[in-house]
Specification:
The structure is a single chain. By secondary structure, the chain is mainly alpha-helical. Helices cover 81% and strands 4% of the residues. It is built from 4 helices and 2 strands; from the N terminus they run αααββα. The chain has helices at 8-15, 18-51, 53-56, 65-106; strands spanning 59-60, 63-64. Strands 1-2 form a two-stranded antiparallel ribbon. Strand 1 (59-60) and strand 2 (63-64) form a beta hairpin. The chain is elongated, with a radius of gyration of 22 Å. The relative contact order is 0.14.
Length: 108
């Protein structure tokens, strides 16, 4: 699909479309909670170490709980990225349909 510039009037027309609003709303409902979850999960480690250093320094297997939690952040980031990629494919498909419709129906 080629990219065509869109002027302000066309943009406003597209922005008022219910499908466009639904798409941006769906994207927002995924991205905002995912971002909040990521930040909270990321900050939990330094806060836990500051608040409960004895607990976080306990050994669990070969590593301390703090190390296990730090390693879990890698897994969490990959899972969150995978969830976003799966959702982004749906967002991209919906955006392509809107773009196609915009090119053929709104522009005429």
């Amino acid at each position: 699909m080629s990219h065509h510039p869109i002027d302000q009037e066309m943009w406003e027309t597209l922005a008022e479309e219910p499908e466009f609003r639904a798409l941006t709303s769906q994207r927002r409902r995924f991205v905002i909670p995912a971002t909040i979850f990521f930040i909270v999960y990321y900050l939990t480690l330094p806060l836990s170490i500051a608040i409960a250093p004895q607990f976080m320094s306990r050994q669990w297997g070969a590593l301390s709980i703090a190390y296990w939690f730090a390693l879990s952040q890698f897994a969490m980031a990959w899972l969150l990225m995978a969830a976003y990629v799966i959702r982004a494919r749906k967002f991209d498909l919906a955006a392509a349909k809107l773009r196609h419709r915009e090119m053929h129906e709104i522009r005429g």
